[in-house]
Amino acid sequence: xxxFRRIYYLLALLTGLILINSCKKEVTDKIPQQDxxxxxxxxxxxxxDSVRVILSFSRPYYNQGSNDLDSRKQLSTSLVxxxxxxxxxxxxxxxxxxxxxxxETEFPIIAGSEYILKILTTDGKEAxxxxxxxxxxxxxxxxxxxLKPSKNRVPxxxxxxxxxxxxxPVSSENFYRxxxxxxxxxxxxxxxxKLGDIFFTDKNRDGTVxxxxxxxxxxxxxxxxxxxxxxxxxxxxxxxxxxxxxxxFHESLERNNLTEDNPFAEPNNIYSNVRGGYGIFAGxxxxxxxxxxx
Amino acid sequence: xxKKLLLSIFMLFPIILFAxxxxxxxxxxxxxxGSLETLPGVSxxxxxxKKGMAANNYGFYAFTISPGxxxxxxxxxxxxxQSLQVILNEDVKLDIELENDGQLDxxxxxxxxxxxxxxxxxxxxxDIPINQIKDIPALLGEKDVFKVIKLLPGVQKGVEGSSGFYxxxxxxxQNLIILDxxxxxxxxxxxxxxxxxxxxxxxxxxxxxxxxxxxxxxxxSSVLVMNMKEGNKENFTGEAGLGLLSSRITLEGxxxxxxxxxxxxxxxTYFDLLAKPFMPEDMKVGYYxxxxxxKMNFDLNAANKIFVSGYFGRDKFNVKxxxxxxxxxxxxxxxxxxxxxxxxxxxxxxxxxxTSLIFSDYNLLLKIGxxxxxxxxxxxxxxxxxxxGMKFDLDYxxxxxxxxxxxVKSVWHQFTPSAxxxxxxxxxxxxxxxxxxxxxxxxxYVEDDWIPLEKLSFxxxxxxxxxSADGHNYKSxxxxxxxxxxxxxxxxxxxxxxxxxxxxxxxxxxxxxxPTDLWVPSTAKIVPERSQQVAxxxxxxxxxxxxxxxxxxxxxxxxxxxSYREGASFIETGDSPKYDESxxxxxxxxxxxxxxxxxxxxxxxxxxRLSGWIGYTLSWTKxxxxxxxxxxxxxxxxxxxxxFSLVAIYKLSKRVKLTGSCVFSSGAxxxxxxxxxxxxSHGYVGNSYSAIHAPFKGEHVNRVxxxxxxxxxxxxxxxxxxxxxxxxxxxxxxxxxIEIGVYNAYNHLNPFYYTTDFKENDKAVxxxxxxxxxxxxxxxxxxx
Lengths: 294, 784
Prior knowledge:
Chain A is mainly β. In chain A, 13% of the residues lie in helices and 46% in strands. The model of chain B is unreliable at 5-12, 14-19, 103-112 and 573-583 (pLDDT under 50).
């Protein structure tokens, strides 16, 4: 399949030849621009040790200098409140980490509850988002299966298939994310490589044991990890039960990250559940299973 | 049940209609004098009965009427009108020969007459005289049917210079392009800058935008019917042209005089040949395209004729590198091939039948060859679509104010989204990975031209469609109706309704017309596209001024139309395994609905010292997809509020012709980034095989763009003026025309696309890229 992309190399070359005589002219009129908006990033989970919310501002795309998009510090005086409908608590600014946080001990996150996040900046900008935290994934199973011939990559190499399974509760729509990470530990220092990441729902599989497979090519994986005598390898399997907004946001982000350099790709807006701004506030719950790679 | 109903209607028509008084039939073929080329679309009119019809695609006409003496008037643009008197006591077969007006023999052509638009039941249909196509100035002097079609009202342009077109808000894939009954799937050369149709080989071009007769279907928005010339049955003639980009030659003549003939027409570009001497020895890059049209026809006897026609065209782009001990070769080759074999048979004076065997193929081939000393690697990658079909059409001049048509068409579509064959000894590759999908499409139709009253006429039809693919079977009934009511002899009111289905979809997210655009069938997930269209209009003839005027309003709904999901692309650039599943097209597209409505005006003059047209369209097109733009309606790229075109051809003298065209089109809807921001994700999201920080612990910052609502950026209006002058000279045996043209005469930089550049301090600026400034051209044409 790698070779197919030569088509696009050839097309690009042909396009280049056509465009040799093209003229470029700057457009100054009628460019639609979005005003500066609040950007919120926050993920909450009963398995996490704290609630963390990161704030920043967006900027219009065209005709702006390279001012730092990470405008966190100027938002440190904002009022960030989380509520479970009964109790409302203000998050505290962490000047080291440059975000707002609250330890789990002061505001525990409980599966099945709805949480509302409100932000009020000192210059009067407001944003609000809500999410329901899902239950923990049940009866999770992780199996490293046998090697199989690699179908997409260099002939002669093998690919590793892994099986994830969980019991889906009979309920309304559930959203899942399975992530496979290879953890390499040398002298106690870990390194990580993501091997696979899938998002899906229980559509047509409600109440059943859901099985999904993650497959990765050993040829590519080996390029990044040179084994030594003191190195141990592990497969970490992350079973994440996400809220709907959790999955919609990450799926749109994945599409964006995979195609951002492709001029032929359709434009992709990132999902947001933040009223009055961009970004995400989403609940999730997770189980991690580990197997050592022999 | 639906099939039975259709069959009953078909069977009942003749029974009902035969139960009438005794009739006689006047029928025959209309041909061009001097070549015996049959003339489709000629107006055959009986003024005594105020009845008329257009000869069918093979020049056949027939009236079943009461015995008596009648005048018959036969007229066609570019030909001298004929008026004959016939005494009908019994069936009469009358073949008519029309004399060509000739090129510039007279400055003012008085005899030529055009069909009256107000007398035609059909609406939303435009036929374009081939001579006008040849006269209208074009980019680099390359005459192009598609470029002319884009000057018509109701047809929105694609991007600058492209041949792609959008009809009444439909997508570029919603146009059925037929050449001698064969569907052409990719009608573009060089990214659509040129169409594959060589005007020298064409006899007729007709564009149907609405009010579709039941004999046509398969696409939602338009049908473009093109017929190739048959070849001169009396004399050997030829035509040749020499241009800056390409040269072409057409030869035609009798195989057996007055019985059979042939036509061969070829065109080839030559900038690869011109550039070759200037290329370095170790690096050769070349591009060319060619077209070859060929046709033969045989009159076996008065009742039987055979036609065999074919089109073969290819684009080839190749790159060759040589280095010490080795060589790399790559070639990208794409093109169409069509072959149609047709058998015309007259069952009787009133029953005409045509049987066609049709082959159509579009193929994209990537060839890679690498050699280094004893090692080698070769790969071939294919994608395309191939059709094999059979079509049977019957024309039946039943009489009693009815003219019946019916037919059946069955096609086997074979889709090859990807086929890879690799061989090599340096890594022991020997792969054969071919994906092929088959589908079957069958259509049956019945259609009646019914003139119950002198002032009132109908074209009523029913079409039954069936499509099987991927273990699924889709069926549909498509009712069709066109009606005309004459207010006075030169003015009529028309209305039409048509329901259409489309089972094939084109995957393309550039809108440019790349060879990689891929046709795919309807499947279990991707259901057929459906549309309904109503139109109402007024048609008025000004015979004394040879003018036709029409104004039409239309409203079209489209369901199950396809679009790419946000972020989807069929041109992948990354290395993640996710990309290797790119041929799983169903996961990349989403379905929605659309609507288009508007008003079109056309004032046309097909003959005379000054000919041409003025067209104007006011239209709106909106799409709505559950998965796009937050489910809200948006304007797709084919939405242009205003479209204006002016085409003028002026015969200044016997030897000089001035030509010009002028277009204006409102800006199109597009998407550009409107804001940028950084947002954190839960864990790293993107390519696999990536080294990451601690998963789901650290902050993973993503810098992203917001594009606002879909279509919220309007490109700047498109406008252009093209001018040309033709110098004609008739010598003893040769007619010579030199044409000097200027494309984009006032050098307006129309946008081809928009891009972002970065200035100092990383400041983003929006830039438009224009590729066609003022471009002069010169060409020589010879006719012998």
